[in-house]
Amino acid sequence: MADPFLSNVQPQSGNTNFTLADLTIALQHVQTSCDNITTALEMTRTTLETGIDNLTTRIDAQDVQIQSLSARIDNERVARLNAFTGLNRLRSTYPYKTVEGDGTTLANTLNFPTSAPIWTYPAEGQPIGTRPDFLTEDPLFFLVTPNELRALVVFYNEDFGILATDSEQQKLNKFRRFLCGN
Questions:
Q1: What's residue 49's pLDDT?
Q2: CA distances from 153 to 101, 116, 123 (A)
Q3: Is 118 left (phi over 0), alpha (psi -120 to 50) or beta?
Q4: For the chain, what is the largest distance between any 2 Cα atoms, rounded to a whole number of angstroms?
Q5: Which stretches in the chain have pLDDT values below 70?
Q6: Does pTM top 0.85 for this prediction?
């Protein structure tokens, strides 16, 4: 059986034995083949790593979407319950956060007063699926102050349908409609 690395190398004319020069040429072919294989493996590894990184990023984005969807589903139940409790004067509850991030910039665009925060805001915002722990009163039956409403906009990172031109009462009414899923 012929050696694949020596198949391209021919012994010097008339000689059946390989010389040192012949073997050097054969080793150069082996080295070139190894270099080509190494390059191909490096390219494959880089391609796989890039693919894995892209897949991880897409999975993380899907995870955030799933968390948000789960919180929205829970909020449908909370909104129905809040609408029912509002009619029957039972205790209502705050919905779950569904939007990623912090709503400070959003609150600033809605013309809320810039007073001292009523609670310490994490820089990245609260996680999806959490409820505000800084307010304990029944959300449908207590008068939310503008500062508390601002805190809720920051917490939820949602505008509740509020416009910058709305009066304080309009802002409060829109927040209450948000609580009932309207």
A1: 93
A2: 11, 15, 15
A3: alpha
A4: 109
A5: 1-17, 82-92, 115-124, 134-143, 182
A6: no
